[in-house]
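[stage:ingest] chain + small molecule (S-adenosylmethionine)
[stage:ingest] validated
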Amino acid sequence: MVAGIGPGAAVHLTPAAREALAEADVVAGYGLYLDLIRDQLAGKQLIASGMRREVERVRAAVAAAEEGRRVCVVSSGDAGVYGLAGLVLEELAQRDLVLPFRVVPGVTASLAASALLGAPLAHDHAVISLSDLLTPIELIERRVRAAAEADFVLALYNVRSRTRTAPFEAALAILRETRPSDTPVGIVRNAFREGQERRVITLRELTLDDADMLTLLVVGSSQTFVWRGYMITPRGYCLGSEK
Ligand SMILES: C[S@@+](CC[C@H](N)C(=O)[O-])C[C@H]1O[C@@H](n2cnc3c(N)ncnc32)[C@H](O)[C@@H]1O
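[stage:predict] done
[stage:export] tokens:
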């Protein structure tokens, strides 16, 4: 099994994910994520490893499943969104290994951030990761430009790390070229986790210092507006006018 555990708070762990964890003998995940669900892990064998050890972690989890253990691999948010569901399936596919398998969906960071910001994703939006660890920066730039020119709202994941700033710098330059400077930007850090922060600013005000690896950015489309701190992208309903 692979389960998304949501953005952080226990109330956003779905009952289905809770059930998957309860069924498992072995739980595999990044240490920080296991900390978020510590109270679900009593008596379980843990396969915990750090960032960038994903292949190792998934192989250990698959090996445990081959031994007949019930294994749950966890990702934050949803396991299919920049999470481990794909990697587990790739490993099974590469070895043509048929094991009982299911993916339990979770609340991904863009939806958690959207809820905190109001309704910025109520119309078409594009989800883009700015991490160039596994994706060439040229491709990231092409996608940011295409989505910005097509007037999608942008939900940006993996915005920048301490050392990896070039993709965010490039994205910022593209956004400044393609979107008006008063475009609303929502910044959500640690959504539904300890230390939650939420701000709504304009593209003009956005700087490299506004994001880190715990941040999700939402850049509005030409239709997005701000009302009393809420970001709203209308779907197009007609509200009529007041008499
Ligand atoms: C490797 S991705 C994992 C995404 C995860 N699978 C999901 O569906 O949310 C990590 C990135 O997700 C975003 N993220 C994850 N949880 C977050 C949270 N609670 N608050 C803000 N951003 C978050 C950040 O952009 C972070 O750099």
